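Section 5.1 Outputs to date
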Amino acid sequence: METMRERFERVTSELLDSNPRLAVVTADIGASAFAPARERHRDRVINLGIREQLLIGVTSGLALTGMRPVAHTFAPFLVERPFEQIKLDIVHQGVGAVLVSAGGSYDYPFYGRTHLAPGDVALLDTLPGWTVHVPGHPDEAEVLLRDAIAATGPVYVRLSLPANASPIGVRPGEFTVLRTGRAGTVIAVGPVADAVLAAVAHLDVTVLYAATIRPFDAATLRATLVRPDVVMVEPYLAGTSVSFVAEALSDIPHRVIGLGVGREELRRYGTPAEHEAAHGLDAASLRTRIEGFLAMTSSAAAVSA
């Protein structure tokens, strides 16, 4: 199976042939994959070398001319390093662009801390107007990528190596209802869906799937809510979307917990699976944490009775 990144490279290369407004900008990383497309479109496939701030500046400049540019590199080099340029060159200028990252939170731990970016979505949350897609399968990545390129505003597409075994039918901007239950709601974002479903297989809970996390689909959460206890499971910084859940349920007494990548820095390179386990995002750890959270409400209800 193609990785999400390979699907992005193939589909975007094909779209360059049919969409004269589309441009791709890289900063060395990923440039070789677009080499064939560059032979066909030298004015719209641009590699800038290792200059991430310039990557965003050129992307913004192309957008100002009416192009729909796609900027691509690893997440820490796309969002964290050139954040000031994102804030000023894209948001302040009011232009639309597509940022497509690779590497997720810890897909390449053997490169060290420089290649880990669990705070990318939280950082973009400090800026207005962003659509954020977090696909959990290459097929979903293609759907969301095509939607992002056809859109006009700023879009972040967060690609990762981990993927769910099968694609989920996603509609950009909407949560997908995977199952319904009475004991609470669990929202699984992108590639954590398989682990979440395994963790709650024995629990009577609603499971919502989010491949688009911004804008936050408050309507689906409210429409499916039975017991107002919500577990938010995200493959990046824990708690990133908790405030969005709170806002969606601001008129309803509720409880919410955010599970994801912890703030503590793991100082051993390890493997992606070891990072996943260390942050409690494997199925066994999620089962324990979700059960514990939901049991707190049951215990409180018993005491009140």
